[in-house]
Amino acid sequence: MNRQFFSLLPAILVMLGGLLTLPATAFALTSEANPAGAGRSSTVLAYFRFGEDAFPGASIRLDQFEGHLRALTNPNIDVIDLPAALALAGQSAAPTPAQPDRRRVVITVDNAYRSFYEHAWPRLKAVGLPVTLFVATDLVDGGASQYMSWDQIREVASEGVTIGLRGAAHAHLPGLTDLDLLKDIRHALSRAEAELGATPRLFSYPYGEFSNRVINVLAGHGFVAGFGLHSGALDPNSLPSGGSFSLPRFPITEKFGDADRFRLAINALPLSVEGMTPRDMALSDPQPQIGFTVDEAMGRLDRLNCFASDQGLLGMTTIGRRVELRLAAGFEPGRARVNCTMPVTQAGAATDGEPERWRWLGLNFYLSRPAGDRAVLGPRP
After folding, report:
1. Do 176 and 144 contact (CB within 8 A), yes or no?
2. How far apart are CA 16 and CA 26, in angstroms?
3. What is the pLDDT of residues 241-257, one digit of tens each?
4. Helix or strand or coil: residue 188?
5. How far is CA 95 from CA 38, 135, 267, 335, in A?
6. Are 208 and 309 in contact (CB under 8 A)?
7. Residue 33 CA to chain centroid, in angstroms?
8. How many domains are contained in the chain?
9. 119 phi and psi, to 5 degrees?
10. Following DSSP, what letter does each residue of 266-318 receive, concatenated?
11. What's the domain range around 144?
């Protein structure tokens, strides 16, 4: 599925192109030359609210955001739009040696909060940085003051913002019935077409939650890519289970937006794997057998570490390039994340004060709650 999608992606993105596009020293870059995967990878950042200090779990302080923008205007960083990043990942070959390795970063924003319109977009526009805005249509239709209006969404789209969708009701999609899932996606598409005169083809999963069933519905309704909230760099060889519909992003909030964390994100490289188990991020077993085979180009595995939410460092068994993880306990119902990281080191590359680059593989699992359990699964996003 991955090869087929990415072989078609440049043509798909030609269609998308006209669809809806009506001092940084604290963030120093590293100097490793062309480590495996760097040529086609991009880091995708996920922002939510801006300057809404009452929501530190979903908002970024404006001084932090301005620091990020200063970092992203570094001449060694290319901030590209999301369709361009997908097209780059779909190329069959990395840049030639004559082309220097560069950091490529994509900015995305979820939920169309009004603070994006009031605080983030004017700053992004002033420095000429592209952005993709993912919209949950019911939130906009509700008319609450914390969300943008359709007039404002049309305005930013006309100024170059790419528009994607998050469904209609910002629901926990893997937990919906088949009928409710279809209704949510179809209603979102209908409302976007009615208000914007075009149909978005990029999707951001509410809460970062997805499953094979959700992916199949999106693919069947014309979407070409889906993005979660699991950490990692964009690369076609590093996509778990869902292929082009399980793409990673680094969530950026007040807690996860300091200089060190931001530097880590924009320097990230993909950890390319295949043979992922389980094959579906929606779990029936709270203690799944998690395993994958790491690509030879990633190098030695002796510095690979994996961590699970609420469990910390996981035990692992390696046989050749195959890695099997051992959970200490079963996941609780709701979201559960696993992050695997491995530092990139090359002889003579590191210098004092410069961090290593890290390879990332993020997994975002979803375990259904027992019937009748209405407990809240977590805050928006």
Report:
1. no
2. 36
3. 455 899 999 999 999 99
4. helix
5. 9, 34, 18, 37
6. no
7. 25
8. 1
9. -115, -45
10. HT-EE--EEEEESS-SEESSSS--EEEEE-GGG--STT-EEEETTTEEPEEEE
11. 2-269
- Cβ atoms of 2 and 239 within 8 Å: the answer is yes
d(CA 294, CA 274): 7
Residue 104 and residue 84 in contact, taking contact as beta carbons nearer than 8 Å: no
The verdict on residue 214 lying in a domain is yes
Spatial separation of the C-alpha atoms in residues 354 and 26, rounded to whole Å:
10
User: What does the alpha-carbon distance between residue 22 and residue 381 come to, in Å, rounded to a whole number?
Assistant: 26
Least confident of 47-61, 69-83, 309-323, 335-349: 335-349
Q: For residue 309, what are its two tokens?
A: 């939410």
Indicate which CATH number applies to the domain containing 58: 3.20.20.370
Q: Which of these, 303, 285, 378, 272, lies nearest to 334 by C-alpha position?
A: 378
What's the whole-model pTM score?
Answer: 0.85
Give domain status of residue 240, yes or no: yes
- Distance CA(124)–CA(127), nearest Å, equals 5
Query: How do residues 314-352 score in pLDDT, each as one tens digit?
Result: 999 999 999 999 999 999 999 999 999 999 865 444 444
Residue 29 forms part of a structural domain: yes
Cα distances from 286 to residues 232, 278, 308, 333, 367, in angstroms, run 24, 12, 13, 8, 7
Question: How would DSSP label each residue in 227-267?
Answer: E-S---EE-GGG--TTGGGSB--EE--STT-SHHHHHHHHT
For 125, residues 6+ apart whose C-beta sits below 8 A from its C-beta are 159
Contact 279, 241 (CB under 8 A): yes
Question: Is the CB of residue 143 less than 8 Å from the CB of residue 79?
Answer: no
Residue type at position 92 = S
CB count within 10 Å of CB 217 equals: 19
φ, ψ at 325 (rounded to 5°): -95, 150
DSSP 80-96: --HHHHHHHHT-SSPPP
Q: What is the C-alpha to C-alpha distance for residues 139 and 111, in angstroms, rounded to an integer? A: 8
Q: How far apart are CA 63 and CA 82, in angstroms?
A: 25
Is 176 contained in some domain? yes
DSSP class per residue in 364-379: EEEEPPPTT-------
